[in-house]
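Usage

Read records sequentially. Each one opens with the input sequence:
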Amino acid sequence: MDKLKAMQIFREVAHSGSFSGASDKLELAASAVSRYVGNLEDWLDVTLFQRTTRKVNLTDAGQVYLLKVEDILTNVKELELMAEDLQETPTGTLRITAPVDYSRYYVESFIDDFLGRYPGVNVSLFIIDRVVNLIEEGLDLAIRIGPLGDINLIAKNLGKMRLKLVASAEYLSKNSPIEKPQDLAEHNCLLNAVVGYHQEWKFKVDKDSIRVPALGNIIVNNGDIIADLAKRGMGVAYLPDIYLDRAIADGELVWLLPETSLEPVPISALYPADRHMSRTLQVFVRELQDHMNK
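and closes with the structure output:
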């Protein structure tokens, strides 16, 4: 019997609460999962699960054994990562999650260059805007935008993102001046559906934060489209700088009231505090930092 594999299967059955759930997660036949657990119980001479037709529950002995197995499998993973660190060239698979728009603007082009330099590395990229549990999803790294709060993760700073208020010169020439945030009450605000249908845009005035109702006749759930609408003179947009900086530099959009901009929020790379950071992951994060700060 492959005792290490049996431990891994036992742990997955314990987490899933059923043999079928573990079978699906591990992509093994349910009969193979049952056989591994049975062989493990025979080897230990102890019953690990109380079985019913639909679910399995850990016995007292199974609960104690699961704690020991978690330690053993964590140590095995650490040894694998230490062996990887001894290799001069990064290798292995990185499992990463990142927000949709950040991925489009930064991660996609970076991964193309990174894999060109390190052909022994494979990247599995899970692009989604919701917060993902790294441990439960089996991921190595998460990229998140905004304050982190109290989290049990190690954070590496990648850069910062700032919201900017913009409009086209054409729009500004045809509408009343925008000299303070409250002037937005007289303007068509291009709304981001990701934020919600009833929006207040936040600004900093004399070191205080103020909120201004944002009203408009267009709401879209895509920042790129909102930026394009602003370029066409359809209204005023309030978006992260990743959508706007190129258009501002090219003169397609005008950055309004920069003195009222909120402090930029961090963009962070996060990994579990109890997990060794492999050399491959270290190189990935360091080079992504360099890529963002070019």
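Summary fields computed downstream for this record:
- The longest strand covers residues 153-161.
- The chain has three domains: 3-85, 92-160+266-292, 163-263.
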